[in-house]
Every structure is written in structure tokens, then in C-alpha cells.
């Protein structure tokens, strides 16, 4: 199936590894030229070269912390015309509700709510003028099914979800869609960290902690970055042009719901 994306240009944030890289590679496989970023220059340059070599698309690599104003300015200066925006940033650390004070919440909001909004405001107006655009925000299944240790993430990502719900309906008439991808457990460094913390808290081994967690998933496994990226590419496709303002769960069926 041809997604109709060849020659488009996408900004994929936090994309040197994990789900961001999965999205970048899936778009590159559809002929999309990329601007990718990560905090560490060596990591993002290596990823950029691997994608160029594999898919033959143009890749601009920008080492910047997208959660800071300075980082966003540097990233946007390198963008040029962007047709597709994939918002992504690492989640805040886990803990319990008594651990967090105001400053912790401000950091979480900056990274997982206000940064995506800033990039949306910077790039979507030009998409609307051209009559075509796609925004995909990587959030979390926790916006539908909160995870107690991830209270900071629950809060910030839920705020972004509310913003997208209203904003997506205001830009749809101009041919720009905006949707959220809600990952459950995927085989990334983030889930490794969470399993490590769980093992320490339960005084068990890492493998046992992982097996216990995976046992609660109907598929008895974690998702892959490739599967996640494929869903992102579909939401950007011409076939998904009538889908907007939606929250797509990618969790192997772990969240129980009829609707």
C-alpha cells in the first residue's frame, strides 16, 4: 500500500532510539525526508547515517534538548518546510505521590505538554496554509489507564491530550490532522528502566520482574519500535486523512474496555 508520503518532510523528536526512531524509520521507508533530534550528538548523527544508508532519504540531524527553549529554537532553525510533526520526549521519573513537589510537576509539564504545544504552534500554521499536514503526538496509555508510579507522566500527558482534543478540531478544515499514539510496554530503554526499578522495589531479579509484568498482557510480550512506527506512518498517510483528534492505544490489549 502506497501511503502517499514520498517527498514529504517530517520532524521526528527524540528519535535516536526507541519509539521515536521507530517512527523515523517507518516514515523513511515511505520516502519521507527527515529532521531528527536527540540530546547527544554522536547518537543522533549515527542514527541519521544509518537511516540515510538504509532508506536513501535526506536526513538532517540536530543535537538539541527539545524540552528547552534554546533547543527548540535550534531545531526549528534547521527544519525548513515541515509537513509532518512527530512529538516525542522521554517521560519523567517514576515515584510515589509524596515524592513530587511543584518543581517536579513544572519539569514534567515542560517536557510532555508544553514542548509539544510549542512545536505545534510553530509548525501547524504553515501546514494549514499549504492545505496538508500531520501531527502525531507520542503520549502514553497512562492517559487512559493511569499508572500509579508515573503520576508526573499521567498528569502532563493528560494535559496534552486535552489540548489536542480541542485543537485538532480547529485545524481539520485545512487538511491538517492531529492524533495521539498511546504506547503500552514496548521493548525500549524506558521499559528496561521501569523493570529495573520494579525488581529493586520487589527484591527480585530483573528477569522475574519483567516476566511478572508481561504476564498481565494478553500478548505476553512487549511491543516493538517497528510496530509502533508502522502505526505512526499510517496516521500520516493519505488513507488516514479522515482520522483526527483520536487516541490510538498500542498496548497489546492490556487496557480493558469495550469502547
Fill in the keyword field for this structure.
alpha/beta, 8 helices, 259 residues, 7-stranded parallel sheet
Short structural summary:
The protein is of the alpha/beta class. The protein is built from eight helices and seven strands. Strand 2, helix 2 (41-55) and strand 3 (59-63) form a beta-alpha-beta unit.
How would you describe the overall organization of this protein?
- The protein is α/β, with parallel strands linked by helices.
- It contains eight helices and seven strands.
Specify the number of helices.
8
Low-confidence stretches: none
Oligomeric state, counting identical vs distinct chains: single chain
- Proportion of β residues? 5-15%
Number of strands: 7
Largest sheet report = 7 strands, parallel
Whole-number mean pLDDT: 95
Structural class: alpha/beta
Percent of residues in helices comes to 40-55%
Radius of gyration: 18 Å
Judging from the principal axes of the Cα atoms, what is the shape? globular
Across the major sheet, the strand order is: 3-2-1-4-5-6-7
User: Whole-Å distance between the termini?
Assistant: 28 Å
H-E string: EHEHEHEHEHEHHHE
Amino acid at each position: 500500500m502506497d501511503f502517499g508520503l514520498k517527498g514529504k518532510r517530517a520532524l521526528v523528536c527524540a528519535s535516536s532510539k526507541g519509539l521515536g526512531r521507530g517512527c523515523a524509520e517507518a516514515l523513511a521507508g515511505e520516502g519521507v525526508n527527515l529532521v531528527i533530534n536527540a540530546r547527544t550528538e554522536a547518537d543522533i548523527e549515527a542514527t541519521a547515517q544509518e537511516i540515510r544508508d538504509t532508506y536513501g532519504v535526506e536526513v538532517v540531524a540536530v543535537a538539541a534538548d527539545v524540552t528547552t527553549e534554546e533547543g527548540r529554537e535550534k531545531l526549528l532553525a534547521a527544519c525548513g518546510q515541515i509537513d509532518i510533526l512527530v512529538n516525542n520526549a522521554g517521560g519523567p521519573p517514576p515515584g510515589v505521590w509524596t515524592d513530587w513537589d511543584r518543581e517536579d510537576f513544572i519539569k514534567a509539564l515542560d517536557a510532555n505538554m508544553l514542548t509539544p504545544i510549542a512545536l505545534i504552534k510553530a509548525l501547524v500554521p504553515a501546514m494549514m496554509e499549504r492545505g496538508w499536514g500531520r501531527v502525531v503526538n507520542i503520549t502514553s496509555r497512562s492517559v487512559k489507564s493511569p499508572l500509579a508510579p508515573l503520576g508526573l507522566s499521567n498528569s502532563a500527558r493528560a494535559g496534552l491530550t486535552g489540548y489536542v482534543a480541542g485543537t485538532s478540531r480547529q485545524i481539520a478544515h485545512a487538511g491538517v490532522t492531529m492524533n495521539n499514539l498511546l504506547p503500552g510496554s514496548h521493548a525500549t530503554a524506558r521499559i528496561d528502566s521501569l523493570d529495573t526499578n520494579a525488581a529493586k522495589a520487589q527484591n527480585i531479579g530483573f528477569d522475574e520482574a519483567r516476566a511478572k509484568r508481561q504476564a498481565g498482557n494478553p500478548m505476553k510480550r512487549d511491543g516493538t519500535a517497528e510496530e509502533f512506527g508502522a502505526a505512526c506512518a499510517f496516521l500520516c498517510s493519505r488513507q488516514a486523512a479522515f482520522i483526527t483528534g483520536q487516541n490510538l492505544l498500542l498496548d497489546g490489549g492490556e487496557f480493558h474496555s469495550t469502547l
